[in-house]
UniProtKB/TrEMBL annotation:
<keyword id="KW-0732">Signal</keyword>
<protein>
    <recommendedName>
        <fullName>Acid phosphatase</fullName>
    </recommendedName>
</protein>
<dbReference type="Pfam" id="PF03767">
    <property type="entry name" value="Acid_phosphat_B"/>
</dbReference>
<dbReference type="InterPro" id="IPR023214">
    <property type="entry name" value="HAD_sf"/>
</dbReference>
<dbReference type="InterPro" id="IPR005519">
    <property type="entry name" value="Acid_phosphat_B-like"/>
</dbReference>
<feature type="region of interest" description="Disordered">
    <location>
        <begin position="303"/>
        <end position="323"/>
    </location>
</feature>
<dbReference type="InterPro" id="IPR036412">
    <property type="entry name" value="HAD-like_sf"/>
</dbReference>
<feature type="signal peptide">
    <location>
        <begin position="1"/>
        <end position="31"/>
    </location>
</feature>
Length: 548
């Protein structure tokens, strides 16, 4: 397993997939093959998510790349949970890739630290959260990866954090080697006593109020040795100035500075730094004099390999997992979202959709007109395009971000559905209009359920024009209660049906039983498109959730 701890000295995939993502489509032979002929590797690749990504930590990548090139946030969560071997948001405390990696990191660090005479006043400085105290269960199970300072304070005051794996033994070992230890955390002074008590309970020794530094609460309490350029100190300024105080005023030489954030380590005043892995949040800090954020030795990784299932978390080191806060920032840049609300007039996403739908509309109009045009025998042939709902025809971004904070809530989703709160997915009206002008009928096929059917159709027709989406050609998922039962044309091998099976078999019903040739199938998830039963498959970008 790659080890992500670092000691720093001071000072779609195949050619057809590209067409699908960039404005073309996957031909029927390939779309069908991905489900019906699993041995056809090129077809599978055409309908599979991307697995390699380049992403800057600050989110700026969202302004430069299409949505398929942004790590999908649900896949990121799955990857993180695999890394921590977490179930229901609770990390495994016995065995996991993270625990194994921490054991390797601390063992390597200890092997490189020589024994010293305590009189030499050599010191080790350690951050708290995810350096000595482990916050994973709070971050995932309690906060759903959305930081809540009030809830964090409850956990702090109740001393609920376990020790970061391997770190109690590590800290005690460095003390045995003759080093003094100092704590330096972004937790505030009102949390200091509880934090020290939490550390002591876990078996850490040597941390006291005298050598454990917390952030001041009132401006008047800011220590004189912290001289920030701005009214509010950045993490780097606060921590670098505190380390300067330890060295220049207290007379220690900081041999090693240990933290889980790069902002814990920037700013100097340490002979070396040790970065611990932590993909669960990102605390950035701007450049300060002598500590540029662009320093290659002090910057997060930007290239990642990640499978959509999350299984990469079992093989990648923590630094090789896209940081969830950076992913959120990248997504928000892509949608030009402020306070969780996407810009409705201009954004990289809207520009991307403009480019895609321009080509799609032209292709759909031509294929519909060609197929439905009367031949020499004078008969009209009937054709259709099939469209998913969420993020294909109706845009859910504001709900996903502002309302749900990227943590799906079916009750809240149903409220939005019943209240018909969704606007049309940007530029998809031009595709629907083009299909109708070409003579195609419009078929809706969604994972929303029968109890949401009427509200969804009403929402769509309010956005796309009265009568555009007809009830007889709109398919929703059965609930299994009352009259809402699995239809006879759905013959799933497993219960419940997968999204791909439900949608593929419904498209087969549309073609075989309703007599409509499906010329194009549109969806924002690959599971909307797998299973064939359409001449071409069109994939819309959507990094905000993943439905396998």
């Amino acid at each position: 397993m790659p080890v992500s701890g670092r000691i720093v000295a001071r000072s779609l995939v195949a050619t057809t997939a590209v067409a699908l993502i960039a404005g073309g489509a996957v031909p029927a032979a390939q779309a069908n093959a991905s489900a019906d002929r699993p041995s056809d590797r090129s077809a599978r690749a055409a309908l599979a998510p991307r697995t390699t990504f380049t992403m800057a930590a600050d989110g700026s990548t969202g302004a430069k790349v299409g949505g398929e090139r942004i790590p999908n946030i649900d896949s990121v969560k799955s990857t993180i949970r695999a890394y921590y071997n977490a179930k229901d948001g609770i990390a495994d405390k016995t065995t996991s890739p993270y625990i194994s990696e921490m054991a390797k990191i601390t063992a390597k660090s200890l092997a490189g630290l020589p024994t010293v005479d305590p009189a030499a006043k050599k010191a080790i400085v350690l951050d708290a959260d995810d350096t000595t105290l482990w916050t994973y269960d709070m971050e995932d199970a309690a906060m759903k990866f959305n930081f809540d300072p009030a809830l964090q304070d409850v956990w702090v005051q109740e001393k609920r954090f376990p020790a970061t794996p391997s770190m109690v033994a590590y800290v005690n070992a460095v003390q045995a080697k003759g080093y003094a230890v100092f704590g330096l955390t972004g937790r505030n002074s009102a949390q200091e006593d509880a934090t020290l008590a939490n550390l002591s309970t876990l078996g850490y020794t040597g941390f006291t109020n005298a050598n454990f530094f917390t952030k001041w609460v009132a401006p008047a309490d800011q220590p004189s040795y912290v001289t920030c350029a701005a009214a509010k100190c950045t993490t780097v300024e606060y921590k670098a100035n505190t380390r300067k105080n330890i060295e220049q005023d207290l007379g220690y030489d900081i041999a090693l500075n240990v933290g889980d954030q790069w902002s814990d380590l920037q700013g100097g005043y340490a002979d070396a730094t040790l970065k611990l892995p932590n993909p669960t949040y990102y605390l950035p800090s701007p450049n300060i004099a002598g500590a540029p954020a662009s320093d290659a030795a002090m910057t997060p990784r930007t290239r990642f390999s990640m499978r959509p299932s999350g299984s990469s978390g079992r093989t990648q080191g923590g630094e090789g997992i896209p940081n969830i806060d950076s992913v959120k920032s990248t997504i928000r840049t892509y949608y030009d979202a402020t306070d969780g609300i996407a810009d409705k007039t201009s954004s990289p996403y809207i520009s991307h959709m403009d480019q895609l739908t321009t080509g799609w509309a032209r292709q759909v109009k031509t294929s519909c007109a060609t197929y439905t045009r009367p031949k020499h025998h004078g008969k009209h042939r009937k054709a259709a395009i099939v469209l998913d709902a969420d993020d294909t025809t109706l845009w859910t971004y504001d709900m996903e971000d502002a309302a749900m904070h990227f943590s799906f809530d079916p009750t809240l989703q149903n409220e939005w559905v019943q209240q018909r709160r969704f606007v049309a997915t940007p530029l998809m009206k031009r595709v629907v209009r083009a299909a109708k002008r070409g003579g195609c009928q419009i078929v809706g096929l969604t994972g929303r359920n029968d109890s949401q059917r009427k509200a969804t159709i009403d929402n769509l027709n309010a956005q796309y024009g009265a009568g555009t989406f007809k009830p007889r050609l709109y398919f929703t998922k059965w609930t299994g209660t009352g009259k809402s039962q699995q239809p006879s044309y759905i013959t799933c091998k497993t219960t419940p049906c997968t999204t791909a099976a439900y949608k593929s078999q419904t498209r087969k019903h549309v073609q075989r039983d309703l007599g409509l040739k499906i010329l194009a199938n549109f969806g924002d998830q690959f599971s909307d498109l797998k299973g064939g039963q359409a001449e071409r498959a069109y994939k819309l970008p959507n990094p905000t959730y993943y439905l396998p």
